[in-house]
Design goal:
Layout lengths: L1 E5 L4 H12 L3 E6 L13 E3 L5 H10 L2 E4 L6 H5 L2 H8 L1 H9 L3 E7 L5 E6 L10 H12 L5 E6 L1 E3 L13 H12 L1 E5 L4 E6 H10 L8 E4 L2 E4 H9 L6 E5 L8 E4 L2 H7 L7 H13 L13 H5 L5 H7 L3
Parallel strand pairs: 1-2, 1-4, 2-3, 4-5, 5-7, 6-14, 7-11, 8-10, 9-13
Antiparallel strand pairs: 10-12
Helix pairs in contact: 1-8, 4-6, 7-9, 7-11
């Protein structure tokens, strides 16, 4: 199949493109290289802004299926400029739904559940607590009548591929960096649950759906983990690690445990990569000095985007 990957140079996109190549699909990538300096994978690449429909339309006409990963990602990053977040995360998806009748694979987030008691499945009430979650949820609504499958991804971790940047603002990866560089991590609260998912498992679910016919919403995760338990798991890899537990200084009311039974039963999805594997991947990168500066802003969405302090600058620079 001819598969267009919109946002294919990103953290998830890198792993997705690798999997598409392995499964012998014909791949085309559209991206604006927000965090990247170049794109070197052996597939056709087009530098483009998802907000420019005239540029995007020819690519849609080419594609048998579209994997739409383009988004500003993360609560803090999206809160910097809600207007720009809406421009990127929401409005282009409405346009996509109206202008493309082929297969769509769209990535949303389990953050749409917000704070919930007990374990939630896809029929649970939604409670987005951030601009990020709200724009993703609205994008889901635009796709309801299209040939789209929607994946509400858990919090990602691990290394996706050899080229795309690693994100250090995701809880597992972040704790490993702190453990390695400081030998000490602070856990604020700690009772909050997060559904965790390796980035390559996310890619596997996405690519497996390209030729499928399901048109529902699916939670995709490996397991639900309390933040404090995750900290202890990281300490298993850094025996001298000191864990400080304190009250939350910034209120983060997100707390949700997610059920992935629908994806298991209807899609046959089963995560392959463990949290320990993800921890080891980041640890090995750091120990082998393969990352020159872990404090470089490009590894953290919110810090990087905060450098663009006007709407105009973000509109010129930010796409996917």
């Amino acid at each position: 199949m001819k598969v267009l990957v919109v946002g294919g140079a990103g953290y998830v996109g890198g792993a997705v493109v690798d999997r598409l190549i392995e499964t012998r699909h014909e791949v085309r990538v559209v991206d604006a290289l927000l965090y990247e300096e170049d794109y070197r994978k052996p597939v056709p690449f087009y530098y483009a802004d998802v907000r420019d429909s005239s540029v995007m339309l020819p690519h849609l006409k080419w594609a048998d299926a579209v994997i739409w990963l383009a988004a500003l990602v993360g609560d803090a990053a999206c809160a910097l400029n809600p207007e720009v977040t809406t421009e990127i995360n929401q409005i282009p998806v409405a346009w996509l739904a109206k202008n493309y009748d082929g297969r769509i694979i769209f990535t949303s987030t389990c953050s749409v559940y917000g704070a919930q008691a007990g374990q939630v499945d896809e029929t649970a009430p939604i409670n987005p607590l951030s601009v990020y979650a709200a724009t993703k949820l609205k994008a889901e609504e635009y796709l309801e009548k299209s040939n789209a499958i929607v994946f509400r991804l858990g919090t990602l971790f691990g290394v996706g591929d050899l080229y795309s940047r690693v994100r250090f603002d995701l809880i597992v990866n972040q704790l490993v960096v702190k453990a390695y560089t400081a030998g000490r991590i602070k856990v604020f609260g700690g009772e909050q649950f997060r559904p965790l998912l390796h980035v390559r498992d996310a890619a596997q679910a996405i690519v497996s759906a390209v030729e499928g016919k399901q048109r529902r919403v699916y939670n995709i995760l490996r397991q639900n983990v309390r933040i404090i338990d995750l900290a202890y798991q990281v300490r298993n890899h850094f025996p001298d690690l000191v864990i400080e537990r304190t009250q939350m200084q910034v209120q983060d009311t997100r707390n949700y445990r997610v059920c992935g039974e629908r994806a298991a039963q209807e899609l046959g999805f089963q995560a392959r990569c463990s949290i320990d594997e993800g921890i080891d991947e980041i640890k090995q990168l750091l120990q082998s000095r393969r990352i020159k500066d872990v404090d470089n802003p490009r590894y953290t969405n919110q810090i990087y985007l905060s450098q663009f302090n006007t709407h105009l600058l973000m509109k010129e620079k930010v796409v996917v």
